[in-house]
Amino acid sequence: MMNNMNQAVLLIIIANVLVSMKGFNDYSFLDKYKFQVSRILNGEKIRALTSGFLHVDWLHLGFNMYALYLFGDIVAKILGTPDFLIIYFGSLLFGSLYSLQYHKNEPYYSAVGASGAVSGIVYSSILLYPGMELYLFFIPIPIPGYIFGVGYLLYSIYGMKKQLGNIGHSAHLGGAIGGFAATLLLEPSIFTTNKILVIALGIPIVLLLFFGDKLKNI
């Protein structure tokens, strides 16, 4: 199956693996390029991009890259490589921007992971291929793609509230928003062909945009 994978998807997976491995073995490298609010606000804006290629451990890396493997090829094959790259990096950066806004009063907040970019790709693939079904882990029945997408988003909200680990949970939400918006801009026909799905996926995003800050007070 790897032979049939879009080359851009494969190269991004390889880049994530190599950069993350460097971070696993070199804390100074990880510290220099991870997402950290105070450093970004003080001018180190490159961290908003580089943090998306670093991961906490092999499990974190493996989960994100497996999701990218499953969903990235769908986006690349339907929209083409240039649009896939726009959605991937747009989601990554939007995820970082959302994290920066959400944690703006926490100067030492830091995180790593491709979660924002992958969330954007997951949402994009669901919009483009709403009939997809997934077999996950030991679940013997297929799960509709949109159920996976909403579940991924809910997990992100839980992670934001609990601030689990050094993983960019707020970037999951920002990335989903970025991927959702970018896909609709690049393929506006979805508004008419899958209007109900657009509304269904858009409602939790709109609610979180307006009420997301209240998560900190719950």
UniProtKB/TrEMBL annotation:
InterPro entries: Peptidase_S54_rhomboid_dom, Rhomboid-like_sf, Rhomboid_protease_S54. Pfam families: Rhomboid (PF01694). It is a multi-pass membrane protein. GO terms for cellular component: membrane. GO terms for molecular function: serine-type endopeptidase activity. One of its GO terms (biological process) is proteolysis. This is Rhomboid family intramembrane serine protease. It comes from Polaribacter aquimarinus.
